[in-house]
Amino acid sequence: MRPVDLKGISGKRIMELSLANKSMERAAKRLAELGIPDRKSEEYRYFDIEPLMEKEWEPAVKRRPQMIERAHRLVITDGMISSMPEGLEVGCSDTLDLDVSHFDPMYYFGHLFGGDILQIRVKRDMKLEIKHIFTQPGKLLTYRVAIYVDANVKLGIYESFEAEEAKNALIVSGIDLFAARDSRVALYKDQTLFESDYTPLFSYRFKIDGNAEVKFASFDMGSGNGLQTLHAQLHENSSILSDHLLYAVENARRGTVSKFVHIGRSSQSRQRAKSILADRARGIFDALIKVEHSGKYTKAHQNSKAVLLDSGAYMASKPQLEIYIDDLEASHGSTTGQLDEKELFYLRSRGIAYEEAKKMLILAFANEIIDSIDDENIKERIHSSFEYSYYGKNIIECIQTCHGCEKTVTMSQND
Amino acid sequence: MSAIMKIENLHATIGGKEILKGLNLDLEEGKVHAIMGPNGAGKSTLSKAIVGHYDVKITDGDIIYKGESIVDMEPEERALEGIFLSFQNPVEIPGVNNAYFLRTAVNAKRVHEGKEELNAAQFLRLMKELVNELGMKTEMINRSLNEGFSGGEKKRNEILQMMMLQPELIILDEIDSGLDIDALRAVSEGINKMKDGKRSFLVITHYSRILDYIQPDYIHVLKDGAIVKTAGAELVAELEEKGYAALEEA
């Protein structure tokens, strides 16, 4: 297999791929317009993209399993389905109703170079767990998943990631989510990265039809680098609630770049980012909400709060509104600072040691987002992920009533 | 009677401005001391200085507690040694569960005293008893610390913490502010139950109302950063009648 030189991908190669079908042609056209990202690219300006793009990548091998096992969750190993729940409607296709206004060139790269798109059709209310497993170190893995949610259907997705052996790999992936009229979709992404793990460049696209509701919540933790880009299109009376909890340590560069576009009347978006940054970590929240002329009576609110635990930590926070109408309700805000001195003092004045008081406040800061998860099982898993990241690699102790569980949980790294 | 705390020639600043200007005060073991004084006299600064608040810088003098200076001690060390301040405006901390916070505090103190930590069941049993005694809603146990609590609920929560932590020196900073009659009675009953002849109280107040419920042994008048008069409980009536200005004229 030929190595992929991301920076050196020629227009000719892109045009070759575009001959496959109309959607590939559109993807090729958009990628040619936007170009492979570099340090000057708007959406990657806070992320250290240059070293990734300069490297010559060997593509990961996509191994089709001899048989797909039945399991309680959908497992995608190196871009191929290795197990799935019974009754789940899954197919593969090289065509898709492509989002031609996505701002991220890697979205189009994923579609062009990812091969067939894994397509999931959801016709009835369900909960779905998707686990992505990566096993090829140093390789470039590209694949995409499309999820079609039928009208009036309620879907809850828990997305998790496991790197069995994927050091220094680059994963270009993401989900195209189509929420049909009156559907309700909740997607929880739980991703902890360690330094020299794989680097995910994930692009999400949310097409939200009339009266549909999408809740997206990302829980990004650890010392590795990664970026997620989100593009949402909101039609009449639809809504998106988007929460992002980031806990980054050491030299991590991690965050969210997003653009939510209100197209239909009376649509709503609410975006909330909470970032906790330690050591020399850099957090990114670069988010635009755009309200088109057609988006009358929109409600759009976005807010970013970051806590810097060390002097070397840095938060690039840029919430933005771009509004073309008068009849709407909108707000945005951003704060970056240290832990609240009054709160710390109050806890210490009751005999709680400084370090313990700090931990309590950090967990409290994170819990505001974690506790807004409706599904108790997912909430508990995210709590565990966060506490696992927060307390270290080997042993963690769940701090009893931090989330009301009233118990002590001990987890090893392999649990 | 021996003094549990001796404050000697205390000078303290907030934001570079001197607030306490050579304050001297002895707090006797097992007694209730009330500090009264006009606005801006330095009453709250005194309470902050005792508990080691970050706003207050002690520039001279000393605070001796149980025979040892505490001015260089961290706030948590002072608390573990038995000093408790009931805040005038308790801070709200979203996301910190009230029960979890209090259990951490109680167990930190127990460990400091060489006792075994309370397990969840033991702790909840004790806490629920006291919650009922104080007429608090049990749901408050599992809410975030002080978040969305009314003024009265916050003060009751302070008293709950005091009763759970069993401190030896209790400082009540404007405990009666924002309380209706029923809340004031419940809070006062909680405080009076803590009187055991050994525990000492420092009640900081503008008004005499709270002193109808918590009988003081001594009244100290604080003016312009120093104690200007000390007398028995009879001084309350005099201050009510003549005001603080009369002290100066006398």
Describe this structure in words.
The complex is a heterodimer of chains A (415) and B (250). Chain A is α/β, with parallel strands linked by helices and 415 residues long. Chain A has 2 domains: 4-338, no CATH class; 340-415, no CATH class. Chain A has helices at residues 11-18, 22-34, 50-54, 105-113, 341-348, 354-370, 376-391; strands at residues 4-5, 56-59, 69-70, 74-77, 80-84, 89-93, 117-122, 126-134, 139-142, 145-149, 154-163, 170-173, 175-179, 184-193, 199-208, 213-222, 226-234, 239-248, 253-262, 268-277, 282-291, 298-308, 314-323, 328-337, 396-397, 410-411. In chain A, strands 1, 2, 6, 7, 9, 10, 12, 13, 15, 17, 19, 21 and 23 form a 13-stranded mixed β-sheet that branches. In chain A, strands 3-5-4-8-11-14-16-18-20-22-24 form an 11-stranded mixed β-sheet, covered by helices on one side. In chain A, helix 2 (22-34) runs antiparallel to helix 4 (105-113) and helix 5 (341-348) crosses helix 6. Chain A is globular and about 70 Å long. Chain B is α/β, with parallel strands linked by helices and 250 residues long. Chain B has helices at residues 43-51, 75-80, 98-112, 120-133, 151-165, 181-193, 234-242, 245-249, and strands spanning 3-14, 17-28, 32-36, 56-65, 68-69, 83-86, 93-97, 144-145, 169-173, 200-205, 218-223, 226-231. Chain B is built from 8 helices and 12 strands. Chain B is globular. Helices cover 34% and strands 30% of the residues of chain B. At the A-B interface, helix 5 and helix 6 of A face helix 2, strand 7 and helix 3 of B.
CATH topology of chain B: Rossmann fold
Q: What is the averaged pLDDT score of chain B?
A: 92
Distance between the termini of chain B: 30 Å
- Counting copies of identical and different chains, the oligomeric state is heterodimer
Biggest chain pair interface: A-B, 33 and 34 residues
Helix content of chain B: 25-40%
